[in-house]
Amino acid sequence: MSVAKPAPAIHPDFDVESAHLAETIAAMIRQIEFWEDRDRNAGADLETSVTMADTSEEHAAMLSVHVHQPYFGNLKVRVGGREQTLYIGKHAFLDTRGGHSVVSWESEVGSLFYSDALGWTPRRGGQGVIRRRRQLDVAHKHLLRVTDLYDDEQGGDTGGREEVLLRRLEEQSTAGMRDVVETLQPEQNEAMRYPAGTPVIIQGAAGSGKTTIGFHRLAWMTNRDRGVHQARPEACMVLMPNRVLAAYAARILPELELQGVVVTTPETWITGLLGLEKLEVTDRTLTLLLTDTDNARRALAWRKAKLLGDARMLDVVRTHLWNKFNAAIQGQSFSERVEVRGRDPQTVTFTEAQLFGLLHDVFAADPLDGYRAGYRRLLEEQALAQLNVPENEEISVQRQLSTPFTTLLGRIFASTTPVTEARRLLTDPAALSASGLLTEKEIRLLLADPLSGIPTPRRAHADVTELPLMLAVQAFTGGIGRAVGRTLEPFDHVVLDEAQDYSPLLYALLQRAARTGHITALGDLNQGMHGYKGPSSWEAVQEQLPGAQVLTLSRTFRSTRQITGLGARIASTYNRAADVKGVDRDGAEVQRYSGGNADQSGDERPLIAQAVRDARAAGHTNIAIVTRRAADADRLSEELREFDTDAQPITTQEHRYKGGLVILPVNLAKGLEFSAAIVAGANEQTYDNAVEYERRLLYVAASRALHWLALTSAGELHPLVR
Asked: Is 485 marked as binding a ligand?
């Protein structure tokens, strides 16, 4: 028989805070009504009046969604001998009639709510002192609870921050991302607000909140307080490891007022930039690693994939293109007569030496939109300079030279498409050696074909290990960045989720595609499922992102003490989880279902069905059955119906996670979290204990649950989870 928890004591200031909440809501409603009154928005003319009214309605709509919860905390501060209370919310509100304004969590003052600092220097000078931090649980316009986090009159730290955090973590999960704005911890707040303009790598264990913090950092970057570093949502990009997570992120980013952000996968972004959206993308290296029993061939495939993603390949490609274009210029010259009004016909000429010089200049300039576009601009500039053309005749001259220049560019840059050029490079020993960056052994490795036994699609295709090399060719020849009409510009900010699975070469290319210092990478080297294309260390990424800082989230918030302990035991076998600390949140013991203790038939399906029933009996609705392979999920989805268990399969990137009972492979579960998770096939036959990669997969599978975890096996459970 369970004992009911005692009701929380009513805070002495509860009535005062309730009254302030009601007055703030009333002030917000008055402001919304004022904005929605179109008759008050009268300008000098009809057009101005309509514009003012539309703008006011936008403000009203934005504020109205926050009326039910205007704020979640407050700060009592003393500045220059004057004491005041600042209320902190998700949206700023200025009450022009009274003292019911709200400060945004994104602001510099809002940051003080999350930090441990007790003093600060306001922009207007003087010295500020924090007297009290207070959490206010507000829902549907009602105050539910008051919790002091810090109060100098009560001896300082009250322990309230941990109390509030544990209360939030005990809540049931939904199909969306956990809202952390109210409970940002000091180390999370520091990572989120690391100085704008600095590349940031956030290393965090499963459940440390790194993805959520990364998204909140992007929201923080869009605040006008960032000045020259402010990012426009529509000019930002978020890269997710698969389309399931990309769809998930696309749903929750608007909740942070991030409408218009491009959310996609690296493969979709690259093929789109190449103009090859219908290209089928394969991962034959992964197929070989999972199916081939020849260890030598597996090792060869791993090493080749790593080398293809090596950052040095960027300069290998650059050198190859330099030699190719120089060879194309040999024997070339240019001569074209043009008409300039008021003058006799004149001739524009470029000698072979001049054409070589322009190529040198464009390689030195390294334009964002590529060498071809940059070369054309230099040709046009030089032509206008040769003729000393008046400004009003420039367009006419450019029009006359357009076709001849296109013909010349065609001869110099002919047959340089990203797919064919990347593959041509990988079959040409002389081209691979031209840069002097690769050893003979590395060149032989690139020329080898360890994947020859893995079938390829009949339609046009590219492998994920080839794509960064193809993107490098595109970056140099056709440009890289954000497409704005027919031009390219740098992304304002790029966020990479599961950053441990992106190659150093891709990081080097993203550095070109974004504003300097505007990359946030979120990852966990413990969870590297695709080490053959990812970095060996964060130092390899820092080499490609000058000035990048690695910030470590050492505390995991996702799971109970029991689940976190099991995950740490698995991860410790590859020696990178020693510093991970869980929140001391007690929960149910990890449930184990094996042939020896629940079923004698050797059939795992009744065990899984029983685990589902037990999870539901414990009050959980968002439940995942995690399998090793997509084929296992497909098969079990059908077969479990015989056991009155209807789990919706998520077996391809086209499926969407909407909550409820789902069954999915570990590679698609990565990045998601569930109230309860059931690891099917939790045995050594499924996850080979002798292979580090398999232990990594087991760690990912076992770290998906927030509150309740089960392990099932028809035979004995895996030695790491018994």
From this structure: no
